[in-house]
Amino acid sequence: MTTKTGDQALIKRINTAIVLEYILRGSPLSRAQISEQSGLNKATVSSLVQDLIDGALVQEIGTGQSSGGRKPVLLEFVASSGYAVGIDLGVNYIRGVLTDLRGNVVAERTSALRLTEPNAAVDQLCGCIEHLMTEAPSSPYGIVGIGVGVPGLVDDNGTILFAPNLQWRDIPLQRLLTEKFSLPITIDNEANMGALGEQKYGVGRSINNLIYVSVGIGIGTGLILHKSLYKGASGFSGEMGHLSVEAHGKSCTCGNRGCWEMYASEQALLEQAAPLGFEDLESLLVAASSGRQDVLELFSNIGEYLGVGIANIVNVFNPDAVVIGNRMSQARPWLENALRQTVVQRALGFHLRKVQLLFAELGERSSMMGAAEMAIAGFFARVKAT
Amino acid sequence: MTTKTGDQALIKRINTAIVLEYILRGSPLSRAQISEQSGLNKATVSSLVQDLIDGALVQEIGTGQSSGGRKPVLLEFVASSGYAVGIDLGVNYIRGVLTDLRGNVVAERTSALRLTEPNAAVDQLCGCIEHLMTEAPSSPYGIVGIGVGVPGLVDDNGTILFAPNLQWRDIPLQRLLTEKFSLPITIDNEANMGALGEQKYGVGRSINNLIYVSVGIGIGTGLILHKSLYKGASGFSGEMGHLSVEAHGKSCTCGNRGCWEMYASEQALLEQAAPLGFEDLESLLVAASSGRQDVLELFSNIGEYLGVGIANIVNVFNPDAVVIGNRMSQARPWLENALRQTVVQRALGFHLRKVQLLFAELGERSSMMGAAEMAIAGFFARVKAT
DNA sequence: TTAACTTAGTTTATTGGATAGACAAACTAA
DNA sequence: TTAGTTTGTCTATCCAATAAACTAAGTTAA
User: Are A174 and A154 within 8 A, CB to CB?
Assistant: First the structure.
């Protein structure tokens, strides 16, 4: 069993984390404010703040306004004390970003994925990471970690079990990158990363329970419950693209029938659009915006099926918000009505009272920003554990 | 924000909880064993154990075998230091139990629910509780709490928002019982209680992630994730009976279409059985065991639809086990094949590797035992918080 | 200008846990 | 008997949080 026991060091970690949290959220603010708001003694706050300053995570930035007494010394988190790399590895692109510890973008880099063969792709990925790392200003903590979002199922060791559209199986990406960079590496599904990105930096800021639905070639989902990413019992879940919405519908490669993503994904859209002579999403978006009736009906149909699945998700998880992301979010104007109507019709009233239907704000950058956030969050977790 | 700060009392609470946990799980065992296994210092363990003995939660029960030195003093949890009441309030019955703090049944009581009108039903419920309470031997902590499982949607204040089969709306049951008994009261959905009962005392013992599917008139679900009951964002979830499995299927009273419980519940079974001249589950079970072909096909059909929904659940939550409970679990012999086959066919391979399909062991008593467990768990939570 | 009052942050003595190590008690094995 | 082992308690020490006293640096009103 060996549950972790409590000692004085634990107390200090807990309280340091609290103080850091206040500075991260409320800065600039003074020691006195932290003490009052947190309930910690002034002396305790002073001591912990000093440790944080010594650790280069916090700095004094001058004095604030007096309210009839000594001026407060304002504290601020030092965002530039370290940097994080976030990568979105797509089926035909690699998108990467370098951010500071607040998620401010310092450098960005996009390139087409030349070869999908695993070795070559990983090489190109490493090149992208190295390039971004050289862009980082020198800082006390340097590069604190690398997060990578991938289009596939990832286990909790960061091994890509299966990435259908890349035709990858059992690629131990975390191990490969750890060997190469000797830095903390986080690998996760693109939808989980997207969920995190939107929750932290996008339309879902300050929403505690949200579900991100990544509608691309397939459908992936990322669940943020009680402010943190929910993983299934054994570390991977979110394969809700394979929720069956038509018990006797089309057979899916996964073995199930009537999977949601067979009716509501980009793939489903393109299949239906082929007879009309369309071959990609972009041309369909153009046709829709010029008002072509048959194309509008296609989108409306997709919107309805998206709604069917989302209603299911709402009934099961009862979240505060559902965020539609990835490529299909560009079709918002032509999806939204049908989607909204379907969800309202189908979700239970008790849940509907609360849930918001939103579209991703970061667009194609959700996943990459989420990956950077993962690396940042990992850094903070380590700081708090020391 | 006011996150709870850390102080010495917190350490003591944490470590006391650890020691108590070891005694609950591993008893009888000695102070030395606890120290060695937990990593806590011998002196610390001695001191905390003394507190627990003073608090009547632990007692010394003599010495154990020596392994070449002084004999250890064996410790045991005192199950009889308090008692809990667990109630299963059904549509046409009230089932109640009195247990000690280990969940051993001390007294049990079943009666038919005379009137479903809320006031009358609550009166009868109170009578049942009072009767059980008088059966409790005198003990240091007395009755530590009352748990009640109900067939409906419950919010986190213990108000029954909606119980379709009782035709109740907005009954503040927790408040009513608190006023009456001045004891800690926990109200929850019958399926959540059942999940807890099976996880603690039934077939799911020692399984950390399980999903309990209560198949009665409707279908309810209780999720135990990482050893604890999962509630949705706003305190109620588990309405997976209304997962749509046929996007364009039959309309449900909930507003959705093709809800799972319209195809796989007792109600669904009875509807299909009516043309054959059956009116209740019991007669169908008799017919099935005598081998009537058309009835067997009915059960097989229900089993298949149960499998469709369970495959969905498995894909979403990736649990260690799925437990089928409530009335329909009696039909196991005629459901199981079709169910198993469907799940294997439809669930993703990665999830299947792990998941077990089980049937409730406590039968009709799952929910009641879970309710008692809720009360017990509440007591321990309070002990650990002091 | 001064005295009275406020507020910010530090210093000091105290409290209450956990801990290592010494110790006593109780046992085994030779 | 004697040496060694195991259990459990006792004691001195450490360390983080805290209250209260204190210093620093401002405002306000006469």
Answer: no
Instruction: Kindly state whether residues B344 and B374 are assigned to the same domain.
Output: no
Q: What is the pLDDT of residue B237?
A: 62
* Least Cα separation, residue A339 to chain B (angstroms): 14
Token pair 């200003």 is found at: A137
pLDDT digits (tens, 9 = 90+) for A122-135: 999 999 999 999 99
Is residue A3 domain-resident? Answer: no
Residue B386 above 90 pLDDT?
no
Q: How far is A321 from chain B (nearest CA, A)?
A: 10
Q: Tell me, yes or no, whether A345 and A227 share the same domain.
A: yes
Q: Residue B54 belongs to a domain with what CATH number?
A: 1.10.10.10
The phi and psi torsions of B90 (rounded to 5 degrees) equal: -100, -175
**Euclidean distance between CA atoms A97 and A89, whole angstroms:** 12
- pLDDT grade, residue B89 (50/70/90)? very high
DSSP per-residue string spanning B242-279:
G-BSBTTS-B-TTS-BSBTHHHHSHHHHHHHHGGGT--
Above 60 in pLDDT, residue B204? yes
Q: Would you put residue A367 in left (φ > 0), alpha (ψ -120 to 50) or beta?
A: alpha
Q: Is residue A313 within 8 Å of A245, Cβ to Cβ?
A: no
- Rounded CA gap, A286 and A288, in Å? 5
Q: Residue B269: give the domain boundaries.
A: 206-361
Query: Is residue A1 scored above 60 in pLDDT?
Result: no
A179 φ, ψ (degrees, to nearest 5): -60, -40
Angstrom distance (rounded) from CA B47 to CA B252: 60
φ/ψ of B345, rounded to 5, equals -70, -40
Of A94-98, B164-168, B346-350, B358-362, give the lowest mean pLDDT range. Answer: B346-350
Closest residue (CA to C1') to nucleotide D25 in the complex: A70
- Window 313-332 of B: residues touching A by CB (8 A cutoff) are 315-320
The proportion of chain A whose per-residue pLDDT surpasses 70, expressed as a percent, equals: 98
Q: How many CB pairs under 8 A join A and B?
A: 186
Would you say residue A233 has pLDDT above 80? no
The chain B residue lying nearest A263, using CA atoms, is: B247
For residue B325, what is the domain's CATH number?
A: 3.30.420.40
**What kind and span of H or E run contains B21?**
helix B8-26
Q: How many domains are there within chain A?
A: 3
- Tens of pLDDT, residue by residue over B70-86, are 999 999 999 999 999 99
Say if residue B246 is in the same domain as residue B329.
yes
The model's confidence at residue A225, banded by pLDDT at 50, 70 and 90, is confident
Handedness of CA A164, A167, A172, A176 (dihedral sign): negative
Whether B336 and B217 map to the same domain: the answer is yes
**Helices assigned H by DSSP within chain A:** 8-26, 31-38, 42-54, 118-134, 173-181, 190-201, 261-264, 266-273, 281-289, 293-317, 332-346, 349-352, 366-384
Q: Looking at the structure, do residues A295 and A167 belong to the same domain, yes or no?
A: no
Contact residues, A window 199-218, toward B, CB-based 8 Å cutoff: 208-209
Q: Which residues of A touch B22 (CB under 8 A)?
A: 1
Is A24 part of a structural domain of the chain? yes
What is the arithmetic mean of pLDDT over B198-218? 94
Can you give the pLDDT at residue A103? 98
